[in-house]
Design a protein that fits this description.
By secondary structure, the protein is mainly alpha-helical. The chain contains eight helices and two strands.
Length: about 160
């Protein structure tokens, strides 16, 4: 039996336009809390690394202390890897997003790849450091997406129960 399939039906739901109200309920507030938690966690990761290098400096007569500025300079790279690995993982969320019952998806409903998550992180940090008021785009967007979400083709929604 030869059945032809509708390619549009195979594409899955387009959640960018068809999001139920429950999926967006409290997303902005939850995202702000999640971002604060994630920034604290990344800072803690960097801080622990610097502390360990400080301790190792005693054993190496100060030689590893030369690495401390490099580790601090790598803070953005650590944050990028943190976002990329956690969002593209099985939870589809950073630890902060997971605690706040959020997850990130592509606008067509698929899971976010490492590349999309990394691009999203770069766009977020660029937006935040270059012109922070662009974050306020989510106040007028129909689905509470920030400008960097739109550019990365992702949407943050409440995790289904």
């Amino acid at each position: 039996m030869n059945v032809t399939r509708n390619p549009a039906a195979q594409a899955g739901p387009v959640i960018d336009n068809d999001l139920p109200a429950r999926a967006l309920e409290g997303v902005r507030t939850r995202r702000m809390i999640a971002i604060l938690f994630d920034l604290m966690l990344v800072t803690l990761l960097v801080g622990v690394t610097v502390f360990v290098l400080g301790l190792l400096g005693i054993l190496t007569f100060g030689l590893t202390w030369l690495l401390i500025p490099a580790v601090i300079a790598l803070y953005p790279l650590i944050a990028l890897l943190y976002n990329g690995v956690t969002i593209s993982g099985w939870r589809r969320a950073t630890p902060g997003m997971h605690i706040m019952d959020l997850e990130m998806r592509l606008t067509d409903g698929d899971t976010v790849s490492f590349l999309h998550a990394a691009v999203h992180a770069v766009l977020f940090y660029l937006t935040w450091y270059i012109f922070a008021p662009l974050i306020l785009v989510s106040l007028v967007a129909h689905n509470k997406r920030c400008l960097h979400d739109m550019l990365a083709n992702v949407v943050v929604v409440r995790r289904p129960n």
